Amino acid sequence: MLARDGYILDRNMLNLTLSGLLVAALLFGTLPHSALLKAQVGSSLRFYGSGSPDHDRVKIPLGFIDANGRLTTSYPVNISGAFTIEFWMKASSTENTAPTCPSGWYTGNIIIDRDVFGAGDYGDFGVAICNQRLVVGVSVGNEDRLLTGSTIVTDNQWRHIAITRADNGQVRLFVDGQVDGMLAGPIGRIDYRLNRATSYLSSDPYLVLGAEKHDYPGSRHYNGWLDDLRISRVVRYTDAFTRPSAPHLVDSDTVALYRFDEGAGTVIHDSTPEGRSIGQLKPRNGNDAQHWSTDTPFVGEITPTGTPTSAATPTSTATPTSTATPTSTATPASTATPASTATPASTATPTSAATPASAATPTSAATPTTIGAPPENKPVIRVYIALIFRPHSAQVSQMQE
């Protein structure tokens, strides 16, 4: 023990405290504050479009689901009104071969599926690739609208995608920050209704990534990469913006954020502060390792970026593009589902449209050209940590006089 100036100091605690000061001096003396908040490139998710029942996808419950498949509470990811969904994707035309989808997004190579079977819900939505372009469908009640983009996104390049929906129903699609289509969509709630009865306990009350959630006969699934998916409860973009160069930031309007940086395992974490909307990777035949890739849209050390400011705000009277065809009137009679493959008639038909017979044998289910062999980038972990130095408190006791 050391006695000095009326205090007794423990030698070990003093050494630890001095060591901590030395480490802090080295860190804070050589690194700028901004560097401590920087992120590292991590991993992305690889889907294969295999169509394996309830596999090759990510399933995110929309809330707490009871034994009868009823949603008894909502998680933040169960969005209802205005929203922005943005993510990075990389896909090829040879592995996503769905043709045009006049009867609905659910006949394309599906990237995001928040559909339901049967009636009784407020609304639903989905995102898919049709004819090498993105399509976005939004349905409220019996009103079903489809927005078709104009940019070919299946070019084996990383593309930043943003989809917004305003409270007045206006839907916008952005590809790499550029407006790719607008649609006067239906007005009203689109969240999954609490306590809704369903015969599809393992699919209806979920948000599904990379596949058609019900494995409906003839469905096509997404074949490609997905990274940094952020879902917000506001419209973040109303006009062209600068394509992001780093992962999305978390803010008070972010309801779910999936970095896909786990790099292994089947748990998909929600990176918002509450972290309530956790998902599960359901690997295709084999193990989970084949779905984790070091191919990402981010290179080197990066800092998460904020939402770019739009250049201008369009008026609310924007006219839908010529490709935005309401699906409620677009279903040809010849597209009825053959009786030999249909799901039981009582509840098996999607609320928006039947699957065309032409979709019965999806070419996307073929073995991908790259299986578990992403580019040979060295894996690094994307870290979001701000270092805070907290000085040690030496064990002291006042000397008795």
In terms of topology, how is this protein built?
Blueprint: E1 2-4, E2 7-9, H1 11-30, E3 39-40, E4 44-48, E5 57-61, E6 63-65, E7 71-74, E8 83-91, E9 109-114, E10 123-130, E11 133-140, E12 143-152, E13 159-165, E14 170-175, E15 178-184, E16 206-209, E17 220-221, E18 223-232, E19 254-258, E20 267-268, E21 279-282, E22 292-293, E23 301-302, E24 396-398
Parallel strand pairs: 9-17
Antiparallel strand pairs: 1-2, 2-24, 3-23, 4-18, 4-22, 5-16, 5-21, 6-7, 8-13, 8-18, 9-10, 9-16, 10-11, 11-12, 13-14, 14-15, 18-19, 20-21
Would you mind describing this structure in some detail?
5% of the residues lie in helices and 30% in strands. The protein has one helix spanning 11-30; strands spanning 2-4, 7-9, 39-40, 44-48, 57-61, 63-65, 71-74, 83-91, 109-114, 123-130, 133-140, 143-152, 159-165, 170-175, 178-184, 206-209, 220-221, 223-232, 254-258, 267-268, 279-282, 292-293, 301-302, 396-398.
